[in-house]
Amino acid sequence: MKNNSLLIAALALALSTIIAGYFIGNMHKTGKEYDRYVQVKGLSEREVQADLAVWPINVILSGNDVKNLKDNI
Question: In total, how many domains does the chain have?
Answer without folding.
Answer: 1
